[in-house]
Amino acid sequence: MGRATVDNARLEPMLNELESLCLTRGWTLGLAESCTGGLISSWIAARPGVSRWFQGAVVSYARVVKRKVLNVPSTAFLAHGEVSSPVARAMARGALNALGSTWALSVTGIAGPGGGTKEKPVGTVYFAVVGPGLEESVRQEFKADDGRQDVQRQAALFAFEFLLNAMR
């Protein structure tokens, strides 16, 4: 069984549950993606009727976009770096406000092949979710053996699991 088949077998039930939760509870979703480069939003947007619950996404690779569009404070970058929990949380709050959604998910990390450090090796990704009465973040490290796109794919799949756990 190929990687795409395995991914689809994991992804489809998560997308179905996400759509059901949003529609039955009247929720909307917005995203702030950095290292995943729009992969999460592209998987969501591939579904018909998604505009009923998906507000959109900000793909914010550049620090200036994170700062100006998502209102991530410069102090967060200076104190913690672009790939950090405080920046991920600020990105999620910024997406929530910019997109006017009920929930927002953010992803920021090091997809590689370069850019990693001892403290934050390639494959390090921070996720944050903000919703009604909730704000959470988590750090994950993904294997970077198969390159940049594999880190992005692993991060995108994890993002759905993280979001759904928060929404449940």
What is this structure's SSE topology?
Elements: H1 3-25, E1 29-33, H2 39-45, E2 54-59, H3 63-68, H4 74-80, H5 85-99, E3 103-109, E4 124-131, E5 134-141, H6 148-167
Parallel strand pairs: 1-2, 1-3
Antiparallel strand pairs: 3-4, 4-5
Describe the 3D structure.
It is a single chain. By secondary structure, the chain is α/β, with parallel strands linked by helices. Helices cover 46% and strands 20% of the residues. The protein has six helices and five strands. It has a five-stranded mixed sheet with strand order 2-1-3-4-5, sandwiched between helices. Helix 1 packs parallel to helix 6. The model has no long low-confidence stretch (mean pLDDT 95).
